[in-house]
Amino acid sequence: DSSSNPAIVAGSQIEEDQGWKEVIELAEHLNADVYQEPIAPRVTFPRRHPLFRGNLLPAQQPLADQLATYDTIVVLGAPIFLYYAYVPGNPIQPGTKLFQITNSPLDASAALAGTSMVGNLACAMKYIRSHTKKRKSNPISPQSPPPEPPPEYPITPGFLFSVLNRVMPSDAVICEECPSSKGDLDRYVRLDQPGSFYSVRTGILGFGVPASVGLQLAHPERRVVCPVGDGSIQYSIQALWSAVQYNAGVIFVVLRNADYSALKGFCDFTNVGRNVPGMDLPGINMVKLAQGYGMTAQEVDRPEDLEIALREAFESPGPRLISVNVAKGGQTCMGMDQSVNPPNYA
């Protein structure tokens, strides 16, 4: 009750403890801004909610800067904090009160700062709401969606995800493995239902395609979409065969940029240069690979053809692969660029 400007960091454990409704009620009760944990493996707060402020960046100083205006931070169901790249700084601004409620004793013991408590997230959020005063709030207008990217050629990942967001059903499930385009996915795909997003926070490759097949079999009433990089898909491409054999109607959207853009982005972010072998992936025909496994597949090269291909895929019940030729990446590292002042390792 003593906090004048609190914020909530929503983590994946909220979904584990079935606390989707409780976190919305708590945020509205406290009139607290809500951020998603860095590199979130689940989306646990509706993206169109007027209190949602976006994803935290996975580096110390940029993350601390995002939360600098708040006097109290409550991290619900997430580590404190997960970082991908090193940008030195405090985990949180000095003087800010930091609390963590987690169902993981490991996350509690590994917290870099603050006070940690272990328990069930849904129960904890109900308890806080019943033991705090409701904060006055001015009418809040929903955040405006980001401006739609122009239909440039080559197709940009931002344009791809903005079109996907417009076309896909409201109850679609996203299972993503496109690390170099994660910033654009988080910016343009606005999910508002529980159980709608699956990823991993470890940075490993190869999980997305088989996980999406399993999710589709588990949720036949919802449509699963798997945005996946053309590098990432090579780690478990045989799962396309499983999708065909089990008639799991996943829509695989392959971002075809013919390289490991995530690695190039990390090289650029750290200024070590791109003198690293194996980062280019020329000559892979994703359509023929999918067809070899018995899957309907097509290539999209022009922006005007993208929406047509996506709508046709959603109208068809079976599995389908759409290989989208996108612009080369590497300009950002998990949504961060040089503006966050990373160390120079050159």
Could you explain the architecture of this structure?
With 346 residues, the chain is of the alpha/beta class. 30% of the residues lie in helices and 16% in strands. It has twelve helices and twelve strands. The longest helix has 13 residues, at 303-315. It is globular. The termini are far apart. The mean pLDDT is 93.
Outline of the structure:
The chain has 346 residues and is α/β, with parallel strands linked by helices. The protein contains 12 helices and 12 strands. The strands form 2 sheets. The protein has a 6-stranded parallel sheet. Strands 8-7-9-10-12-11 form a 6-stranded parallel sheet, with helices on both faces.
CATH first level of the largest domain: Alpha Beta
Rg over CA atoms, rounded to whole Å, is 21 Å
- Reading the helices and strands in chain order gives EHHEEHEEHEHHEHEHEHEHHEHE
| Strand line-up across the major sheet | 3-2-1-4-5-6
Helix content: 25-40%
Give me the CATH fold name of the largest domain: Rossmann fold
Summed over residues and divided by their number, the pLDDT gives a mean of 93
What's the domain count?
Answer: 2
Care to count the β-strands? 12
Strand content: 15-25%
> For the terminal residues, how far apart are their CA atoms?
48 Å
**Morphology:** globular
Class computed from helices, strands and strand pairing: alpha/beta
Oligomeric organization of the protein chains: single chain
CATH architecture of the largest domain: 3-Layer(aba) Sandwich
Low-confidence stretches: none
Write the layout of secondary structure elements.
Elements: E1 6-10, H1 13-16, H2 20-30, E2 33-36, E3 52-55, H3 60-66, E4 72-76, E5 97-102, H4 105-110, E6 115-118, H5 121-130, H6 157-167, E7 173-175, H7 182-188, E8 197-198, H8 208-218, E9 224-229, H9 239-245, E10 251-256, H10 261-270, H11 286-292, E11 296-300, H12 303-315, E12 320-325
Parallel strand pairs: 1-2, 1-4, 2-3, 4-5, 5-6, 7-8, 7-9, 9-10, 10-12, 11-12
